[in-house]
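Notebook entry, structure prediction.
Reason for the run: the old model in the group folder had no record of what sequence produced it. Starting over properly, with the input documented here first.
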Amino acid sequence: MSSSREKILTRLKQAEEKRNIGKLEQPNMDAPIYLNTDKNLADWFQENLELVSGQVFRANNLDGAIKQIKELAEQEKWDRIFCLDPVIQQALKGHIDCQFQEEDFENTQVGITSCEFLVSHLGSALVSSAGISGRRLHVYPETHIIIAHKGQLVKYLDDALAQIQEKYQDNFPSMITNITGPSRTADIEKTLVMGMHGPRNLFVLLCDEIF
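New structure, fully documented this time:
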């Protein structure tokens, strides 16, 4: 006499045969995670960042990027711009009035920083606490401007993290953040709010030349 367990298993097997369900194919664990692409990394990055409401401006060099920022500052009426990166500070002098003093920080409208890498697949910028700009300039001002060059472009986030590991070795940064577009949330009644936890606007100035 069959047990109840055997009867149930028999019925399940019969149902499986009736529906002609075979064994599921085992996944290929050696297959690549990402589909390969032959897209130009700069174009791919711009395309993906603009999909999430970020803006990208292209420039030949750092001077061209500063010229573009000056035009944006005049257009948006920015008058409280903060920057800590000495290379960018030097380029800004004589073109844009910036605050470099700590006591000016709380009144900042715009923060200008560099970044570690630009991830084309996500349209995002990887930043870390090891950068000269620290932690605050990426999140505090209403507008965040990143100046980068094509040598910082990578295909995927894995590539950026691998290069971060190689760059810092045993002195790994205490904070690494991947910024993908302006800050946003829809937690409250599913209404999209921009700038809730960080900058409302994100601009990336992408230079052809390394600086």
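Summary: The chain has a mean pLDDT of 90.
The old model has been moved to the deprecated folder.
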